[in-house]
Amino acid sequence: MKPMSLGALFGMGLFLVPFFLVGAFFLIQGLGKVFQGNGPEGWPMAGFAIVFLSMASGFLSLIVYGYRKSRKTAGLADEFQDAPWMVRSEWAGGVIKAGRGRGVALMWVMAIFWNGVSSPILFVFQREWENGNKAILIGLLFPLIGIGLLVAAVRATMQWRRFGNSELRLKTLPGRIGGVFHAQLAVPGMASSIRQFNLRLTCVRRTTSGSGKNRSTREELLWEDERVAPRQVLSFESTGTCVPVYFRVPADQPESMTGNPAIVWRLEATALLPGVDFEEKFEVPVFNTEPDSVAESAPDPLEGHQDTLDVGVAPNLRGVQIVETLDGVRIHFKPARNPGTTFSLFLITAVWTGIFVVLLKTDAPLMFPFIWAVFDVFLILGLITSLFHGIRIDAADHNLTIKHRLIVPTVTRHYASGEIAEIKAVPGMKSGNTQFYRIAVIPKSGGKSSAGSRIKNKRDAVWIAERLAIAVGL
Q1: Is the pLDDT of residue 213 over 70?
Q2: Which domain holds residue 113?
Q3: Contact indicator for 393, 450 with CB cutoff of 8 Å
């Protein structure tokens, strides 16, 4: 593992010099105006400068920290060539802390920085508007994004205050290719209303390409498995809730690996709760090692709790209503069931539409508002769909009816059991590291119909698909 060089450290530090100079300039100008008696204009300028200098100092600290950490990691990699999981301190210690507090702090820093940089537009907006500068409307979109960042920071803070910093205690160090991954998730705070935890172990290939503004990172899902930890296997202590984690790892998957591309094994744990949901992710060590007879002889604490379909326990999905009827099942995917996605799409659409309006009011070439309008139409349609599109599925008496509703019923499809070849859960859209699933109804005549989408957990999607298949007699 190659450590960061002094030249790279100097180069990144040199990149920050203009930011320090700009911050110092505005600070001097702002304080000068204050001393001259022009406080209403001087204080906002000085405040902006302080935020700007604080952010530049923070980035410089991160660069220095990264340099020191890379040098230390390189030394440990040479020392533990036969046990690479010992290079990372949290792996070597057998306890992986979620670090939610650090994540919350970073989100607040980003929100404060963005609002600090964009808020000065509010002080000059009226003057510029009265002077005929219609393009100043574009500037109002940046405080709107700042509001979105503040909302995200508040939500993350609520999660942190409710659950604290969770930690994953490794019982197999490391998890073994062809063996098992066994751990215990400790969640601070009592969560007596938890019905079950959804656990997901994934193996992804992470590839980074390009550099600078063109730098991008792509993740390819190689393998995944999902399990549930129902309330029966949870233990509630004075310090919080303990969740058993147990997965069998296939022998044909690659081990954890740094570099480019990198192989990342990730554990995700979620739980639906009143108010703020629980959601946490951990990068875990999984390597091709010799079997550990002691660690792998431990019984599977989740065995016997995975076949929820046989015992009639429907998944608990926000915005999805599942009702057992006398001769089948009725499933209703309600509109706006993914508020986070809908809100993000609203912000993007608002920014895009705002820029389109400004282009219409300026002397921009006709080609630019035309192109902007084409994309804006798709964004608006997507927002309307996210807000108002619902699906109702009735599966009973060997018949399946799917009704799509967009404010009013729009499309209805009806199938008899003899017309259906298969009902299954298939991968749908992907948002960041999250793979969503949808229910596909495949007729014998060909084609495919959607019977629900944007299901976050594969296990829940499989449950719905199997339940519909049983109801129609497949």
Answers
A1: no
A2: 102-163
A3: no
